[in-house]
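Collaborator request, handled under Task 6.
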Amino acid sequence: MVWKSVINTVYECLSALHTCLKMGYLTLVLAFFVLGIVQISTTKGDTSMTGPEVSGEDDFMSKSAAHFVLPVSSASEAHKSGYFFSLSLSSSFPEDLEVSDYCLTLLRIFGERYVTYVNCSVSYARPVKMCEKCYINYSDLKDIFNNISSGTGSGNESCYNSLVRSDRLMLVYMLYSSLKDIWSVASCSNCLMKPNETALSNDTLYFLTLLNVSFSCFETHQQGNHSELCKECKAPYQRLSELYSGMEKNHTLCIDLEDAMNVTRRLWSKKYECSFPLEENVPVIAVSGFMLFLPIIFYLSSFLHSEQKKRKLIHPKRAKSNHSLMNIQDKFS
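Structure tokens returned to the collaborator:
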């Protein structure tokens, strides 16, 4: 009985506690609900009171704040409406940093000649005719860069510091230097008259003449049997090849002539399947054969010479020793 009364008491306490907790939870929910309604009504009242008073700087600040939360899709429309400020650098610098009109004129001329030369180089990149077609444009570009880097204008003014050395990148110098390196690697100076390099050299003109003669011969006899082409065009092609070999030894070749000769040789040997007659290669074959037999001749002569020397050295010693031995035997006998 005691245990049953204790259990009933505990059960009643737990029931009362559960009821209290349920009531407290509902009370808490109602409290939050009431606070939310009060907050919303307060916000509406503040908005209705302060709305007519917003003007001037407050209106500007509200618009400025509003454009930062515009959706991405309406960015262009906001830009047209004037919400965004210009993000470009100011075009006006302090007076001591401004470039003079004379230097700006040189820079503009440099840009025009740079573009002209690049367009010419790209136009004659395949087949390569950059040296013979663009040397005037390169000469003009070199002259304007020399004026920028070392020349002086009105009032003894130099533009080297303001145009070339004014920034860490040295953009003007790097642009010119890249084209100068290409010109140097192509060895274009070898095909031009020295020292001004304003005209093609005589060797270059003569090579181009023989090249045109060879190509004309190829075009004339390319139809039908190629054996006739090999026979009729052998002389101009051989003169062109000999001239190219001589210019190669004298270091008077540029990329234009090298590329033209490579194309001509591919046409002659691969497309038209031409070659020089065998009798013209006899001296080359003879010299090559002689060079191949030189080691054999050398080792054979060395072997024979050593054997002969060995016989001369050993034979007298044996003879002398045998004669002495016979004398000793005679004495004892």
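The cover message to the collaborator said: "Residues 40-87 have pLDDT under 50 and may be disordered. The radius of gyration is 50 Å. Please let us know whether this matches your experimental observations."
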